[in-house]
Design a protein that fits this description.
Number of domains: 3
Strand order of the largest sheet: 7-6-8-9-10-12
CATH architecture of the largest domain: 3-Layer(aba) Sandwich
Largest sheet: 6 strands, mixed
CATH superfamily of the largest domain: Response regulator
CATH class of the largest domain: Alpha Beta
Structural class: alpha/beta
Number of helices: 12
Order of helices and strands: HHHHEHEHEHEEHEHEHEHEEHEE
Distance between the termini: 75 Å
Helix content: 40-55%
Number of strands: 12
Shape: elongated
């Protein structure tokens, strides 16, 4: 059973206030008495009540992480990196899942504030639906609450630290073009989702620079098996069939594999494929899937560093940091012979 400060004071034949001063290094206690009290505390395994100390110091050494969708693998990977980084900085993480609902996101933020978190990291529902209301985040900013948005919401003026999705799209297309691919098809285009828009914009940047030397088809995607097969069948029967597919999310790539196989289209012999969001399955598929991967440790470190700055100085001007990603080269891409 834990020893309280009152019990420790009784053992030391002194007051709890004296014990507190001795253990915290405050003046008013002789050097010899301080040493004796510290030795006694160590011998009986006394540990200060960290919550009480934090309340007095007006901080709790906790951070709140609010995610739009905790079933999303990329969100989970970022959370794991954030938790590791937070512990290294003597913080604990409290996690809330908004389940794609902005009202729940608002309630989660309010609940974490009631729990006196020192700062918030928010992966917003806005990333999935750009039309949702942002007044709750604007209110946080107006009140000087320390928070960082882990999504590229620069247009709102929030402090943001996020993956550079547009750069990743550009680098992915440039990689395929450098291997001789000239007919690209992008699957999963959806203007409502911020990630899709940014990734697609980067791909367009690279293709547009090639002028007439490269083409790109943009496709949405329906998740039913029959609809997926119909989409792929139409794509490969039309003139200018693609030599490379880019899936804007890894779960889309999984749904492409079966209809491609049913239609006798082989990866990478007949078409190369690159997916965004390197998932656990990507190295184990046949062929192993080339993927765009977040540098989650770098991203988490940058988020935590920026949040620490804002905890120290809540009224800092907003910053917007973008972290480059990387392409993990595997078996699903091969060059086009003679750049044809």
């Amino acid at each position: 059973m834990a020893v309280s400060i009152t019990e420790l004071a009784r053992m030391a034949n002194t007051s709890a206030a004296t014990v507190s001063r001795a253990l915290s290094g405050k003046p008013g206690v002789s050097k010899e008495r301080r040493a004796n009290i510290r030795l006694l505390a160590e011998s009986v395994g006394y540990k200060p009540n960290q919550l009480a100390r934090n309340l007095l110091a007006k901080h709790t050494n906790t951070l709140g992480f609010v995610t739009a969708n905790l079933t999303n693998g990329t969100h989970i990977q970022l959370l794991q990196a954030l938790e590791t980084g937070a512990r290294d900085r003597d913080y604990e993480m409290l996690v809330a899942d908004s389940r794609r609902c902005v009202e729940r996101e608002r309630a989660n933020i309010e609940a974490l504030q009631r729990n006196r978190v020192d700062g918030l990291i928010i992966l917003p529902v806005w990333e999935l639906d750009r039309d949702v209301d942002q007044h709750h985040l604007l209110d946080l900013q107006a009140r000087g609450v320390p928070f960082v948005v882990a999504s590229d919401m620069e247009e709102y003026g929030f402090p943001t630290v996020a993956n550079d999705e547009r750069l990743a799209g550009r680098e992915t297309a440039e990689y395929l073009l450098s291997l001789g691919h000239r007919n690209l098809a992008v699957v999963g285009c959806d203007d409502a989702k911020q990630l899709n828009r940014a990734r697609l914009a980067g791909i367009r940047d690279a293709v547009d620079e090639r002028g007439d030397a490269a083409t790109m088809k943009e496709l949405g995607f329906e998740f039913g098996t029959d609809a997926a097969r119909a989409t792929i069948e139409e794509l490969f029967q039309a003139p200018g069939r693609p030599t490379a597919l880019i899936a804007l999310f890894s779960h889309l790539a999984l749904r492409l594999l079966r209809p491609l196989h049913q239609l006798g289209i082989r990866i990478p012999d007949d078409v190369s494929m690159v997916v965004f969001d390197d998932s656990d399955w990507c190295p184990w598929s046949v062929p192993a899937m080339t993927a765009v991967a977040s540098r989650n440790r770098h991203l988490a470190s940058a988020i935590l560093e920026e949040l620490a700055r804002r905890i120290e100085s809540p009224n800092l001007a907003p910053v917007h940091k973008r972290i480059p990603q990387r392409i993990i080269h595997r078996e699903s891409v091969r060059p086009i012979a003679n750049n044809q």
